[in-house]
Amino acid sequence: MPERERVEEMTEVFEINIRHLRGLLAIHEHGSITAAGSLVNLSQPALTQGIAKLERQFGYTLFERRSGGMIPTAMGRIVIERTEAALKHLADSAQGLTNVFNNPERLMTMTQLRAFLALANAGSFAEAARSIAISQTAVHRAVGDLELVIGTDLVERRGRAVWLNAAGKKLARGSRLAVAEIQAALVDLALDSDSRSEMISFGALPLARPYIVPRAMADIAKEVPKASFKVLEGSWSELVEPLRDGAIDMIVGALRPHEIADLYQRPLLEDLLVVAAGSQHPLASVERPTMDQLRSYPWIVAPADAPLRAHWERFFAEGPRPETQIECGSVMIIGRLLTYSNLLTLLSPDQVALQIRSGLLTQIGRPLEGSRRMVGITTRRSWRPTATQRLFFEKLEEAARERISNPDLTGTWI
Fold first, then answer.
1. Which letter does DSSP use for residue 153 in this model?
2. Rounded distance, CA 373 to CA 253, Å?
3. Distance (Å, whole) CA 344 – CA 364
4. Does pLDDT of 392 surpass 50?
């Protein structure tokens, strides 16, 4: 096989046979097809054909055939590392679900996982069938076969409605992460191909949306035209489970002030809160307002469970708190309210930069020294980015450095 075999259609992740991937790992461990075949219940000719098919699907020779055994090539090592991670995700997610089989993940097929994940995403057999262009009967059969393999029910049915039970949610998370690893292997090996694009999926918290995220995305769009993005907006509580499930690969925004066992937090920059108001507010011209002056006006506060609310409460910890006329988490709504009233609020400078530049809003006084928050990237600890994802990391870091070195980018003075 040539160094890189071009194919008319690039392989889709669900076309890859899990048993062939297990055979790949067995060959790597034992150095020969003969020894590996019995471990994955395939004859030597069948495993030979399976590895040849994997090489066609990934587009590279995965092993060098030597007199002393089969040695993985550089590209083969990439596939092996990703496959080890993928199968570990499957094994971990199947562990403890039932006592029927010791290692149920060894009996799973890509057909079953494809149908199961489609059902998990769609919430009905009809929508799942449409999403992957197969019949409802085929989806029923594949999910039923997977439940037999696992030895327990994975979904609950009530009429046409379908939802995952606890076992189903656990297996769905592991399955998504496993599929993502295999997809990453395909991407890693197709960097020189003009026919493959890569999806960068991430969650954006409020602090990262105004500048860091769009700047990094724009840079990637210029340098990697085939790259595409799926961006979820929401609060930390809304995005952390999609991160753990593998629906997104990172969250960009305010980091948590404590370590999280299964997540890794990578800091980019510090953020200081400011008091924001409409440009016609009576305090707009006051350089250093007193606490009594700030207490004399009504405030917009963040929801009770938001970190921003905790900062506001600490700011007014001593003495009486001002009137809190409105509780709201939408920066768009807050910005409009400020322009029409004498309300005050706490926000990040980046969140009101455009309104300040346009003259609609203003910053009251100086940033609050006790309001430092770290902005950065949160990922799963087990996650390993592809080359394009690493480049996105670099662009986020560049945007953060630019933001630090040029505070006027936000339209405020820090």
1. -
2. 10
3. 9
4. yes
